[in-house]
Amino acid sequence: METTTKKIHALYNDDDVLLHAIKEIREKKYTIDEVFTPFPVHGLEKALGVPHTRIAYAAFIYGVIGLIFAIWMMDYMMIVDWPQNIGGKPNFSYYQNMPAFVPIMFEMTVFFAAHLMVITFYFRSRLWPFKEAENPDPRTTDDMFLVEISVKGKADELEVLLKKTGAVEIKLIEN
Amino acid sequence: MMYQLPNTLRNFAFALIFIGAIGVIYGFLSVPTFEEVKSAHLAASEVMHHSADNMGTVANDEHIFHLLHQLQNRPWAALYVAIFFFMMISLGVLAFYAIQHAAQAGWSVVLFRVMEAITAYLPFGTLLLFVFLVFSGLHFNHLFVWMDPELLNQESAKYDELIANKSGYLNVPFFLIRAAIYIIGWNAYRYLSRKYTLAQDQATDNVNYSKLFKLSAAFLVFFIVTESMMSWDWIMSLDPHWFSTLFGWYIFASLIVSAITTLALVTIYLKTKGYLEYVNNSHIHDLAKFMFGFSVFWAYLWFSQFMLIWYANIPEEVTYFIARMNDYKIPFLGMVALNLFFPLLILMNSDYKKVYGIVIVTGIVILIGHYIDIFVMVMPATVGDQWSIGIPEISSVLLLLGCFIYIVFNALTKAPLLAKGSPFVKESKNFHYYNID
Predict the structure, then answer these.
(1) Mean pLDDT of B88-93
(2) Which residues are within 8 A (CB) of B362 and not within 5 positions of it... i.e. 6 or more apart?
(3) Do B311 and A100 touch (CB under 8 A)?
(4) Cβ contacts of B416 within 8 Å, gap of 6 or more
(5) DSSP character for B300?
(6) Does residue B118 contact residue B266 with C-beta atoms inside 8 Å?
C-alpha cells in the first residue's frame, strides 16, 4: 500500500466551472489545499468552506487603538508639551479644545484601521517583502484557475473526477 | 397579494389621532395668561433671590411679555416640529424613490410599493404644513419673528436693520408662494410617478418606465434645489439673523436617514405579517447599510457646521450654538449619542444588519434622535429656555403619527405589493448580497 502523499494540480479556464468543480470535489471528501485564481472569485471562500474572516474585528480594534493614540497625541502635542494658542482657544484645557481635535481623531482611526488591516492581511496570507511566489503555475496570473489537492494512495479515481468536472489540464506532482 | 388593513392597526391609528388631538387642544388651552405668568414669575424670583422689588416695573413687564410669548409659542412650535418631522420622512422617501428610478436600481424594485405608500402621506403632510405657514403669516402664532411688520418700520423701536435688508426674500407673500411652488412640485412628481408605475404593471412595453426615468432625474434636480430652499425658509428663518451655508445638506441628512429608517421599519412590519414574500435578508441588509451610512453622514454635517462656527467664533454665528449649549445641552449633545454612536456601534456588525429586532430597535432610536434634531432646530428660536417635552410635544407627535400610520397603510391596500411591471423585478427578487446566507 502506498503511503506517500501526492499533489494534484487541476487547471480550469472558467470561474463558474471552477466553483461547480470545487463543490463536486468536496462532496467526494477530497481535501483542497489551495486554489490559485487570477482575480477574486465571488463565492469561492464559501464553496471551499473556509471559515468567515475575522479581519472586521481586528479592524475595529485597530480603529480604537488609532482613536486612543490620536487622543493622547493631541493632548501631548497641543496641551502638555508645547501649548499653542490658535484662534484664541484656551490651550491649557483639553476639554475646551476637543472639537478641534475631532478631525485628527477621525483621521487617525481610519489610518490605523486601514494600514494595520492591510498589514494583518499580508501576514495572514504569508506575504511579505522578498517573499518567493508560491504560485505553482504562472498561467494562474493570466487566465487559468488552479486547484491543488493532496491525495494519499492512488490518484486515478480523482483524476477521472477532475476530468468530469471540466478540468482542462491535470498534473500529478510526486513529492 | 393585496394588502388588507387590519382593524387593529386602523383602530390603533385612530386612537393615536384621538389621544393626540385631545393633548394638542389641551396644550393650546393651557397657555397661561399675562397675569398668571406674572404671578408665577414673581413667586419664582422671590424664592430665587428676593429681588423682585429691585427690578424696574417696565423692564419686568417686558420680560414677562417675552416669557408669555414663548409660552404661547410652545403648543404651536410643538405642532410645527411634528408636522415638519413626518412631512420630512415622506419627502425623504420620495427622494429615495426618485433616486432608485434615476439610477435604474435593480435591488429595490420589491420595495417600490412600500415607498409609494409612505409618500402617499406627502399631499396631506405638505398641505398641513402649508396651512400652518399661512396661519403664521396671518399672525396666529409668532414662530417666525421676521413676519412682524414692526421690525421693518424704521420709526419703530423694534426696527431691525438686518431683517429689513432681508425683507426682499423674507416677506410673507413671497414666502408662501415659494412654499406653494415646492409643495406643488413634489406632489406633482409623486402623483405622476405613482401613475406611471401602476401603468407599467399593465403595460407590455417599457414606455412608462422610461418616462419615469426621465421624470425622476428631472425631479431630483428640482428636489435638491427646493429642499435646500425649504430648509432656509421653514427652519433657518426661525433664526433670521443666523445663517449656515451647509444647512440644506444638514436637513437633507436628517431627512434621508429618517426616511430610510421608516422605510426599513414599515418593510419589516409587513414582512413579519407575512407580506412582501420577495423581500429577503439582503434587502433588509441594504436598508440597514443606508441607515448606518447616512447616520455617519448626518454626524459629519452636524459636526462640520458646529466646528467651523465654534472655531471662527464670529458673534452673529455663535449665538446659534450658545443658545443650544446653554439651554438645550442634554438634547443637543444627547442626539449625537442617539443619531451617531448608537447606530454606528450597533449596525457596524454586518450580521446585525439583517436581524429584524436589531434593525427595529436601532431604527426607533434613530427616529427619536432625529425628532430631537428638528426639536433643537426649532425650539431655541421659538420658546427659548421655556422648552420641555410634555403634553403638547408628545401629543403632537401622536396626532401626526396616527395620521401617518393610517394614510400609509391605507395606501398600501390600493395596489398590489409587487411592482411587477418594472423591467428589473427579476433582479430584485434574486437580489443577494454575497455575505448573507
Answers:
(1) 97
(2) B288, B291, B342, B343, B346, B347
(3) yes
(4) B1, B2, B113, B201
(5) H
(6) yes
CA distance B305 to chain A (A): 12
Q: What is the DSSP string of chain A?
A: ----EEEEEEEES-HHHHHHHHHHHHHTTPEEEEEE-SSPPTTHHHHHTPPPP-HHHHHHHHHHHHHHHHHHHHIIIIIIIS----TT--TT-HHHHHHHHHHHHHHHHHHHHHHHHHHHHHHHTT--TTPPP--S-GGGGTT-EEEEEEEES--HHHHHHHHHTT-SEEEEEE-
* CATH of the domain spanning A5-38+143-174: 3.30.70.120
How many CB atoms within 10 Å of residue A170?
Answer: 16
The CA-based angle B104-B118-B335, given to 5 degrees, is 100
> What percent of chain B lies above the pLDDT cut of 70?
96
A80 burial type by CB count under 10 A (0-12 exposed, 13-18 middle, 19+ buried): exposed
Residue of A nearest to B312 (CA): A87
What is the distance between the terminal CA atoms of chain B, rounded to a whole angstrom?
A: 26
Beta carbons within 8 Å of B159's beta carbon, 6+ residues apart? B150, B151, B152, B153
Q: Which of A43, A60, A87 sits opposite B311 (nearest CB)?
A: A87
Whether the Cβ atoms of residue B252 and residue B245 lie closer than 8 Å to each other? no
Q: Return the HEC string of A63-79.
A: HHHHHHHHHHHHHHHHH
Kindly report the length of chain A: 175
- Return the biggest CA–CA distance within chain A: 85
Q: What is the rounded distance in angstroms from the CA atom of residue B128 to the CA atom of residue B117? A: 18
The pLDDT of residue A1 is 47
Residue B378 CA to residue B395 CA, distance in Å, equals 17
φ, ψ at A145 (rounded to 5°): -115, 125
CA distances from B383 to A72, B299, B379 (A): 41, 25, 5
- Distance between CA atoms of residues B96 and B216, nearest Å: 10
Find the CB nearest B306 among A42, A99, A103.
A99
| Cβ–Cβ gap A99/B310 under 8 Å | yes
**Which cell is B235 given?**
427652519
Centroid of chain to Cα A13:
23
- Cβ separation A43–B434 shorter than 8 A: yes
Chain A nearest-CA distance from B303, in A, is 9
> How are beta strands A169-174 and A5-12 bridged, if at all?
antiparallel
Say if CB B110 and CB B423 are below 8 A apart. Answer: no
Please answer yes or no on whether A60 and B348 come within 8 Å at the CB atom: yes
* Chain-chain contact of B307 with A42 (C-beta, under 8 angstroms): no
DSSP B338: I
Distance CA A88, CA B312 (A): 10
Number of Cβ atoms within 10 Å of the Cβ of B326: 11
Q: Give CA separation, B204 vs B106, B194, B198, B207, in Å.
A: 19, 18, 13, 9
Listed by number, the residues of chain B in 296-355 with a beta carbon closer than 8 Å to a beta carbon of chain A are 303, 306-307, 310-313, 348-350
pLDDT at residue A2 tops 70: no
Instruction: Tell me which of A156-165, B34-43, B252-261 is least confident.
Output: B34-43
Tell me how long chain B is. 437
pTM: 0.90
